[in-house]
Design goal:
The structure holds 2 protein chains of 2 kinds.
Chain A (H helix, E strand, L loop, with lengths): L1 E14 L2 E14 L3 E5 L6 H8 L7 E6 L2 E2 L5 H11 E4 L11 H12 L3 H14 L15 H13 L5 E5 L7 H16 L3 E6 L2 H4 L4 E6 L2 E7 L4
Parallel strand pairs in A: 3-8, 3-9, 6-7, 7-8
Antiparallel strand pairs in A: 1-2, 1-4, 4-5, 9-10
Helix pairs in contact in A: 3-4, 3-5, 4-5, 5-6
Chain B lengths: L1 H14 L1 H38 L4 E6 L24 H6 L6 E16 L2 E10 L2 H5 L4 E4 L4 H5 L4 E4 L1 H8 L8 E4 L2 E9 L4 E2 L2 E2 L3 E5 H8 L6 E6 L5 H16 L5 E5 H44 L1 H9 L4 H38 L7 H27 L3 H6 L2
Parallel strand pairs in B: 3-10, 5-7
Antiparallel strand pairs in B: 1-11, 1-12, 2-3, 2-6, 2-11, 4-7, 5-10, 6-7, 8-9
Classes of the chains: A alpha/beta, B alpha+beta.
């Protein structure tokens, strides 16, 4: 069953007097449990696509079905609910709150879901243990390496068991060793049934996925299965 | 969720200690000013009221506004022929028969020179009768007060206020000693217990002699004032009306006299102090509003600085309401904390100030509660705009900010 179904998604911005069309009719389908990489050079519209996929923004036209529901015309308040329940984000620059420790950062999505504090802590601890940081619960982001910070961010993204894990250049700020660690966590999560979508410009990273969707100038140019050896 | 939001706000405030303190300063000063000024004003009101009540229970004062005329040798004290607008002693004493009146003390007042040996002083001379002591609530320290016999026999006897007794006789007991008033010898028969001062005027530096004697000493034929006491159960308003009617027939015009009751004095006083408290409260309220603008200013800066944090929170699912609540709780916490510090500071200031000025201060829990409530309102009102700006940020735009 398709978790994500996009039909003719277009997005344009007003620049001065002109409309700049960033996405020009994207149609794609991502099954539940799939591991997909969306690849494209900078300026190809992949960030805009990621914003729409992640319900941070809405398309100008077209339809976006997430778990069978058309959310392409949703207001911001309803989108917040969708983000809260269905999507876990991993950003290039980690985006942890510097004033909170690892445990508090990971518990944050649960706070907004209204989970009781005791259960918040338990589940945040489980998620951090899953990414190998069970011994760094009370460290602040500034006391962690880049790789560790990104693993905290992954723990935060999966703590509420969202159907979709969405990562935007997750290894962009990491050295190759830390990057490999992050990618192996994604593979492990995928193996346990998690739907993963990674947006990247790096072919090597994209090759960890099952399928690579290439976009260029706002349209999909190819969609290929990856054969792992 | 609310308690965790409170925790988040507290840590945001704690992370910027100096800035938070400076932000709160406006509210702190406003609330401290309210508390200190109101408790000083209330303390002053209470001490003045209790002194006015101490002047005498159910006191009614009749004052004539025309000056006394010199005693002419041709007229006698028993049938004085006074020009219109002046009261005779007979008229004054006849007020005692007005229903509801308990006691009457005619007053013949003026200043005179008192001397004991080489010691002289010049203070108020009060010619009155035995009722004066009871109407004015004086206690005796030594000897006795004026008696009815002193009045009817025109006896040269004097009773001293405690202050005047010390002035003239020092530590010695004045009773049964002789003093002179305008050169005429008088025998001291009693000394009054001290009563303190009101509006800077002492109630203890005067000399009382029989009013019959005072008229000849001061060369007056009229009565300048009358002090009356009402019976405990008397209707003071009706009583005042009856007195006014009688005085009007004697004195011709309402311009020539005034009748003042103690409750009138108290209500005048309370209206003055209420106005004073309103004015003080208004000034303090303005400073609280200024403090609120300070909070709004800092909250706007804080929202701008934390745009990325807001974007992150929104990306992971924070709703409009959750962000609104977070920033509102922060401004409420700033204002509430400022209010609490202000209450403590204001109480300390009023205690210290009260000690220095020797004034009594009355801490009022309702004023403190009101000031606290007002500072919370200020926090809510001035926090609303910054908080709604934060909550309305678009997540994509907010995340783009470095």
């Amino acid at each position: 069953m398709a978790l994500i179904e996009m039909e003719q998604i277009r997005k344009s911005y007003k620049m001065g007097g002109d409309y700049l069309e960033v996405l020009r009719g994207i149609s794609l389908s991502i099954d539940q449990g799939d591991y997909v990489a969306i690849m494209g050079p900078s300026g190809s519209g992949k960030s805009t696509l990621m914003h729409i996929l992640g319900c941070l923004d809405v398309p100008t036209s077209g339809h976006y079905f997430l778990a069978g529901k058309d959310i392409s015309r949703f207001q911001e308040s309803k989108l917040a609910t969708i983000r809260r329940q269905q999507i876990g984000f991993v950003f290039q620059s980690f985006n942890l709150l510097t004033a909170l420790n690892a445990l508090e950062n990971v518990a944050l999505p649960l706070l907004y879901q209204g989970t009781p504090p005791r259960i918040q802590r338990e589940r945040a601890k489980e998620a951090l243990t899953l990414v190998g940081l069970g011994d760094r619960l009370h460290h602040r982001p500034s006391q962690l390496s880049g790789g560790q910070q990104q693993r905290v961010a992954i723990a935060r993204a999966i703590v509420s068991n969202p159907p979709l894990l969405l990562a935007d250049e997750p290894t962009g700020n990491l050295d190759s060793h830390a990057g490999q660690e992050v990618l192996s966590i994604f593979t492990r999560l995928h193996d346990s049934g998690q739907t993963v979508v990674v947006i990247t410009h790096d072919a090597q990273i994209a090759h960890h996925a099952n399928r690579i969707i290439q976009i260029l100038d706002g349209t999909i140019v190819s969609s290929q299965e990856v054969t792992h050896v | 969720m609310f308690s965790q939001t409170l925790k988040v706000s507290m840590s945001a405030i704690w992370a910027q200690k100096l800035r938070s303190l400076l932000t709160m300063l406006g509210v702190i000063i406003g609330v401290a000013a309210v508390i200190a000024l109101i408790s000083l004003a209330r303390g002053a009101t209470q001490s003045i009221s209790s002194k006015i009540e101490g002047l005498g229970s159910n006191l009614i004062t009749v004052s004539t506004t025309t000056q006394g005329s010199p005693l002419s040798s041709s007229s006698t004290a028993t049938t004085p022929l006074l020009p219109p607008g002046q009261l005779t002693a007979q008229e004054a004493l006849s007020l005692g028969r007005v229903p509801g009146i308990a006691r009457v003390a005619p007053i013949v007042a003026g200043s005179a020179t008192f001397a004991v040996g080489d010691t002289t002083s010049s203070v108020g001379l009060v010619g009155t009768n035995a009722a004066y002591q009871h109407i004015m609530n004086y206690q005796l320290a030594e000897g006795r007060f004026l008696s009815p016999l002193d009045i009817s026999s025109d006896a040269n006897v004097a009773v001293l206020g405690s202050q005047e007794a010390t002035n003239l006789f020092g530590a010695a007991n004045p009773v049964n000693n002789v003093m002179t008033i305008n050169g005429i010898p008088f025998k001291v028969v009693g000394v009054l217990a001290p009563k303190g001062s009101l509006f800077g005027q002492s109630s203890d530096d005067f000399v009382a002699i029989p009013w019959t004697v005072a008229q000849s000493v001061l060369g007056q034929t009229n009565i300048s004032n009358i002090y009356l006491s009402a019976k405990g159960n008397a209707n003071v308003t009706a009583l005042t009306n009856r007195l006014n009617l009688k005085l009007l027939t004697w004195l011709g015009s309402a311009n020539n006299f005034s009748v003042t009751t103690q409750s009138q004095i108290l209500s005048t006083l309370s209206s003055i102090t209420t106005t004073m408290q309103d004015v003080l409260g208004g000034i303090a309220g303005i400073s609280l509003i200024v403090g609120g603008i300070g909070i709004m200013n800092i909250m706007l800066v804080s929202v701008t600085e934390r745009t990325r944090e807001i974007g992150i929170r929104k990306a992971i699912g924070a709703s409009h309401g959750a962000i609104l609540l977070q920033f509102l709780v922060e401004s409420l916490t700033l204002a509430g904390l400022g209010g609490l510090i202000g209450i403590v500071l204001g109480t300390v200031i009023s205690d210290v100030l009260g000690g220095v000025l020797g004034a009594t201060t009355t801490f009022s829990a309702s004023t403190a509660l009101l000031a606290f409530g007002f500072s919370l309102t200020v926090g809510l009102v001035f926090g609303l705009w910054p908080a709604s700006r934060a909550a309305s940020l678009h997540p994509v735009d907010a995340l783009r900010v470095e």
